[in-house]
Amino acid sequence: MRKKVVAGNWKMNMTPSDGAKFAAELAPKLNTDNAEAVFCVPYTDIAAVAEAIKETNVGLGAQNLHYEDKGAFTGEITAAMLMELGVRYVIIGHSERREYYAETDEAVNKKLKKALEAGLTPIVCVGESLIQREQNITADWLRMQVRIAFLGIPAEAVPKTVIAYEPIWAIGTGKVATNEQAQEACAVIRQLLTELYGKETAEATRILYGGSVNADNAKALFAMDDIDGGLVGGASIKPEFEKIVNGY
Ligand code: PGA
């Protein structure tokens, strides 16, 4: 049985004090028996949110990391820096980072290796654009993104990762994939993991859906066979995140 994961991606929202207040109110209400709940917060909010949720089972995540251990990389953050502050999850390869900061599949692969080496749970994002979906190349695209992201990752590490399928056309648009579209894409990813690593590894790995998840659509999406929870943007900084995690 795969335990569900519901991760909130706060993106570039909330100051440390706003974030701590929001997290302190929300975290105690989240039921983590059936799903791991995670707040992926801006770097500057990490310390304050860590303090605010320390008595709860809610996990703390970052939205990016660098793949080197140290050095002349102005503005970047290492895995060890995150670990020391209590961060245990990290989003890698979000489509906004790919689009606005030219993050490549090769960089995603390096970041994934570094996150695993450090003991962070990576949430690796993949997803197609609207043109790719319309041209019927979604499955090929997802397979390519996952293959490159996982180059050199051994089978035993794969279940320690989380993969988020996020169709770009559904992110922040209010245009959610249908349950069937989301399921189909997540099944493509699980099938690839089966081919690369075998059935047992594929069955043990959590695959999430992301893209306009809200309190009204989450339950049905997360009930699909190959969807093991969600990566939630806009709705993760609203009180409705409670309903998405608690499943009602
Ligand atoms: P959204 O964002 O829920 O606001 O569509 C999802 C994401 O970018 O992870």
Summary tags:
TIM Barrel; 11 helices; eight-stranded parallel β-barrel; 8 strands; globular; alpha/beta; 248 residues; binds 2-phosphoglycolic acid
Please give a structural write-up.
The protein is of the alpha/beta class and 248 residues long. It has a single domain (4-246), classed as TIM Barrel (Alpha-Beta Barrel), CATH 3.20.20. It has 11 helices and 8 strands. It has helices at 16-26, 46-52, 79-84, 95-100, 105-118, 130-134, 138-149, 179-197, 199-204, 218-222, 241-246; strands at 4-9, 35-40, 59-62, 89-92, 121-126, 162-165, 206-210, 229-232. The longest helix has 19 residues, at 179-197. 45% of the residues are buried. 2-phosphoglycolic acid binds at residues 9, 166, 171-172, 210-213, 231-235.
Q: Work out the helicity level.
A: 25-40%
Strand content: 15-25%
Contiguous helical run count: 11
**Domain count:** 1
Question: What is the CATH superfamily label?
Answer: Aldolase class I
- The total count of strands amounts to 8
